[in-house]
């Protein structure tokens, strides 16, 4: 850790499957003060692990036991040792330089810092009209069912205090992992702050995301979680601090 701006330790979890060409850019954006980077390798057939190790001395590598982004993240979270856990993508779409904003939100009182491409200051170079429409519809359904005020449900740039992992009890394997985290954070009564984030386009390769198939998985997750019992209050969406 170099010149750490916070009195807490920070782990960054990076799920990756055949992302060797993108990792030099991704790792170049990570702040030097991060305590731990965990690469969760989905049994890549390229040089993902070797490239990551050469770029980041002290890198921890977790080999995924099943398939899917959700499984990769839950295994990475379980291996993390930091007080705060940040999740970013390995395709270059999430900017590691934004991590300071997520950690700041947590230090200032949030339990869960949720990236939003629709919050003032956020944006996306990658959202197609159909994906944006689907995301907005799923966000609306979630807000209606759970009393939340999210602006961007399906975005994978988030950070949270590691002590809240048990409250979220994550148990899914696919792209619906972000939705499950958002819903269960609300069910657990966590204090949530949205953090403006700008999504870039994937640099190399093709995404494994399928808008219709994965959108239906997200919808099923939203509806299924309504039957999950919880005795805790709905989350508080905390407004960003003002100067």
Summarize the structure.
This protein has 243 residues and is α/β, with parallel strands linked by helices. The protein has one domain: Spore Coat Polysaccharide Biosynthesis Protein SpsA, Chain A (Alpha-Beta Complex).
Question: How would you explain this protein's 3D organization?
Answer:
The chain is globular and about 45 Å long. It has a single domain, classed as Alpha-Beta Complex (Spore Coat Polysaccharide Biosynthesis Protein SpsA, Chain A), CATH 3.90.550.10. It is α/β, with parallel strands linked by helices and 243 residues long. The protein has 8 helices and 10 strands. The strands form 2 sheets. Strands 3-2-1-4-7-5-8-10 form an 8-stranded mixed beta sheet, sandwiched between helices. Strands 6-9 form a two-stranded parallel sheet. This is Glycosyltransferase involved in cell wall biosynthesis. Pfam families: Glycos_transf_2 (PF00535). Keywords: Transferase. GO terms for molecular function: transferase activity. InterPro entries: Glyco_trans_2-like (IPR001173), Glycosyltransferase_2 (IPR050256), Nucleotide-diphossugar_trans (IPR029044).
The total tally of domains equals 1
Please state the second-level CATH architecture: Alpha-Beta Complex
* Largest sheet geometry: 8 strands, mixed
Strand adjacency order, main sheet: 3-2-1-4-7-5-8-10
Which shape, going by the Cα principal axes?
globular
Protein name: Glycosyltransferase involved in cell wall biosynthesis
Keywords: Transferase
GO molecular function: transferase activity
Organism: Streptosporangium album
């Amino acid at each position: 850790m170099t010149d750490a701006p916070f009195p807490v330790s920070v782990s960054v979890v990076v799920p990756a499957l055949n992302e060797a060409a993108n990792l030099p850019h991704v790792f170049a954006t990570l702040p030097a003060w991060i305590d731990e980077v965990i690469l969760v390798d989905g049994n890549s057939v390229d040089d993902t692990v070797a490239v990551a190790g050469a770029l980041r001395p002290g890198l921890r590598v977790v080999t995924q036991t099943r398939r899917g982004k959700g499984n990769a993240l839950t295994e990475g979270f379980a291996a993390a040792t930091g007080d705060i856990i940040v999740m970013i993508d390995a395709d270059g779409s999430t900017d590691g330089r934004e991590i300071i904003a997520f950690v700041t939100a947590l230090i200032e009182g949030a339990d869960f810092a949720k990236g939003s491409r629709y919050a003032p200051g956020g944006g996306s170079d990658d959202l197609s009209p159909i994906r944006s429409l689907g995301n907005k519809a799923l966000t609306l359904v979630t807000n209606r069912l759970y009393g939340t005020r999210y602006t961007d449900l399906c975005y994978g740039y988030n950070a949270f205090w590691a002590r809240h992992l048990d409250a979220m009890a994550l148990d899914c394997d696919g792209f619906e992992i972000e939705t499950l985290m958002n819903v269960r954070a609300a069910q657990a009564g966590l204090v949530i702050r949205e953090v403006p984030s700008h999504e870039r386009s994937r640099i190399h390769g093709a995404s494994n995301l399928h808008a219709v198939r994965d959108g239906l998985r997200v919808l099923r997750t939203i509806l299924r979680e309504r039957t999950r019992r919880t005795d805790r209050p709905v989350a508080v969406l905390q407004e960003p601090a003002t100067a």
